[in-house]
Design brief:
The chain is mainly β. The protein has no helices and 27 strands.
Amino acid sequence: MTLKIATISFLLIVLSLAVSNPSKKVRGNLTKFTAQTENREKKNTVQSILDESAKLEKLAGDFQFIEGPIWHPDGFLLFSDIPANIIYKFGSNQQVEVFRRPSGKANGNTLDKENRLITAEHENRRVSRTEKDGKVITLADRYEGKRLNSPNDLVVKSDGSIYFTDPSYGVSKEQEELGFYGVYRLATDGKLTLLVKDLVLPNGIAFSPDEQKLYVNNSEAGYIAVFDMKPDGTVTNQQLFAELKDASQGGVPDGLKVDVEGNVYSTGPGGVWIFSPDGKLLGKISVPETATNLAWGESDRQTLYITASKSLYRIRLKIAGVRAGK
């Protein structure tokens, strides 16, 4: 693997929370934290992305460990509570409801081009699709006859193919059959292709807006890898896009999303890290819990929803995110 060390400029704009130790909130309650920025220059900072008066809102809490947020165009957010074996729905009434139980210990969620829910299920060790009638079907659960480890996160390309990561977070060593942790492409005809097998534990995954690059978080190694896309849907030229390391903060590179300008957002130590398309660190959004994943929401896709251990948060941005399943 060729590693190209990205230049990282630490022009950090950290969103400081007005309340350092917020009280624990029950599901459905909303707490707002006033954000403060430390840099007034707009060039090469998150000032063009985030207004200095933006507020990080705590929407709900008391979950076990939440992940996989995805905004549905019908006006609600879905997200997974992995150990609880539930997919939750957060609607316009600002309340949390059970969407599916059991969920197969779902982790990542996304939508396909028909707005059907695509889910990475730990317990069932599969990628599933929820049909319009509510039936859940298996799209992929084996590679070359061997069971997948525990599909983790996924993204849908504009041609309808599904790209997903398959680390070992949901299985024991004794349960593993493959002997490696892969990144896969599932074509619309059902063909499953192994793209990458040399990342330590691949996790979050996202495309650049033009779909010419694929980003994958390598969680335990602490960095984002980037690949060039080939015309046949496979990848080449693996490089290091950016490192996310801070021993003073909890968290690893986990969930990953990209906005329409090509900026890359990744959960990591201390919150959400924001990088320019060339890998320069623009700033961070501080989150009072370990951030796990993120998703663009609302009709304009300018609300960033953040799952963080036991709580759900959101914050308004100036730039829209790439639409799921575009």
